[in-house]
Design brief:
Length: 474
């Protein structure tokens, strides 16, 4: 209505008309209609570039907005192209220390993360954090946001100790500056809880969970149970319960969030579908594969309709549905979906992207379940080589790939090769996580089995004794 009137009264090229068009684009984004938002933002960018010039701040703002929409639509390559241009122009026109330049750098770092280039993302985020600390101060909200972004990058790189160090600082400062009830503080607490879980510090994660319960109660009282911030707090608390293995409680919270988001946002809204996917994973974790399948089928169908079949969210849902088919014994359907996801990710993201390698690993697992261990081994060798190159030999995904390949060697009867890989996995798990971490203990138990298969009974007994001692000390 506003856009139509301003176009009629002022002309379609008037600054106020373009501002109205930009605002309408944001409204479409909030409603989850990013295709329409993109259409409007393309028009705004073209007109501003023509009327104001390519270097004008409003043109660069329009370019940044369009880049964000491309990211949301899963077109990270196009987003990167636009963000590189924005960063170059901001640096030239405003200086490299200007807040807008640093914001542009942070946006580009985010896109590098989505493209799987965590090393480049880390490089940019370190720069952003250093400059924002210098320009804005270490307690400024933008500085803390930059610190949180860097923490996530370390998390993605498997450096949980560094991620924890940064998250602790963020939580402490945000609690002091914003209060423990603030959404940003709650989000940081949830991230810190997840990091503690990855490091095996479940007691600390439980402390953060209890704080999350208290915050949810306060939000419900102050804002109402249907308020978006209340639902966000509930969703964060559900994830913390999941990290701690309390899937029944996570399910209870997620059912509530899904019902309320469906009522408030509609059943096709991206946030509703994301919550449905979270609930599906919880059902999966609880062993209710039939219910998980039912939800995943709905998510895949709706995301294909709303976002397109090539969107990262759609492919993620398809991957989860494939795993569910596998657990239900429908291995041919799991393989069919796995092949589709791998082909699309290879085409869209490249063969070396972490998500592509994850899809390859999942397909290898399906081949294993079908009894085709030779094909599984072929894929797993490729995954391990590429993950070692892309993520490093100490990354959790690399170690998981190594463990999966070892399992396939065992299935093929090559226990010597399995042992070689399992010894490496165990050494790295002990070095990175410590002896008491569940992943380390599991690696010990797997190696004990392999020692026995090789008739290395003394080595098996020695390791078994160590496992007993560790478990008794917990």
């Amino acid at each position: 209505m506003v856009l139509e009137k301003q176009t009629k009264l002022l002309s379609e090229d008037h600054p106020d008309t373009l501002m109205a068009m930009g605002n309408l684009a944001w409204t479409h984004s909030d409603l989850g209609d990013w295709a329409k938002a993109k259409e409007l933002q393309v028009t705004v960018l073209e007109k501003r570039a023509k009327l104001l010039g390519q270097d004008h701040p409003q043109t660069l703002n329009a370019m940044g907005n369009l880049a964000r929409t491309h990211s949301t639509l899963g077109d990270f390559a196009k987003a990167k192209e636009l963000q590189v241009t924005v960063l170059e122009k901001r640096t030239k026109l405003l200086s490299e220390d200007h807040p807008e330049t640093l914001r542009a750098m942070g946006n580009l770092a985010w896109t590098h993360s989505e493209l799987g280039d965590f090393a480049k993302a880390k490089e940019l985020r370190v720069t952003v954090l250093e400059k924002q600390t210098k320009v804005l101060g270490e307690d400024h909200p933008d500085t803390l946001m930059a610190m949180g972004d860097l923490a996530w990058t370390h998390f993605s790189l498997g450096d949980f100790a560094k991620a924890k160090e940064l998250w602790v600082t963020v939580v402490e400062k945000q609690t002091r500056l914003l209060g423990e009830d603030h959404p940003d503080t709650l989000m940081a607490m949830g991230n810190l809880a997840a990091t503690h879980s990855e490091l095996g510090d479940f007691e600390k994660a439980k402390e953060l969970k209890e704080l999350g319960v208290m915050v949810l109660e306060k939000r419900t009282k102050l804002l109402g149970e249907d308020h978006p911030e209340t639902l966000r707090a509930m969703g964060n608390l559900a994830w913390t319960h999941s990290d701690l293995g309390d899937f029944a409680m996570a399910k209870e919270l997620q059912v509530t969030v899904l019902e309320k988001q469906t009522k408030v946002l509609g059943e096709d809204h991206p946030d509703t579908l994301m919550e449905m996917g979270d609930l599906a994973w919880t059902h999966f974790s609880l062993g209710d594969f039939a219910k998980a399948k039912e939800l995943w089928v709905t998510v895949v169908e709706k995301q294909t309709k709303v976002l397109g079949e090539d969107h990262p969210g759609t492919l993620m849902a398809m991957t989860s549905l494939a795993r569910t088919h596998s657990r239900l014994g429908d291995l041919d359907k799991a393989k069919e979906l796995g092949v589709t996801v791998l082909e699309k990710r290879s085409k869209l993201l490249g063969e070396d992207h972490p998500e592509t390698l994850s899809a390859m690993g999942n397909l290898a697992w399906t081949h294993s379940e079908l009894g085709d261990f030779a094909k599984a081994k072929e894929l797993q060798v490729t995954v391990l080589e590429k993950q070692t190159k892309v993520l490093g030999e100490d990354h959790p995904d690399t170690l998981m790939a190594m463990g999966n390949l070892a399992a396939t060697h065992s299935e093929l009867g090559d226990f010597e090769k399995a042992k070689e890989l399992e010894v490496t996995v165990l050494e790295k798990r002990r070095q990175l996580l410590g002896d008491q971490h569940p992943h380390t203990i599991l690696a010990m138990k797997i190696l004990i089995f392999t020692y026995r298969a090789l008739d290395k009974l003394a080595e098996a007994a020695e390791l078994e004794q160590l496992v007993t001692q560790i478990q008794m000390s917990l």
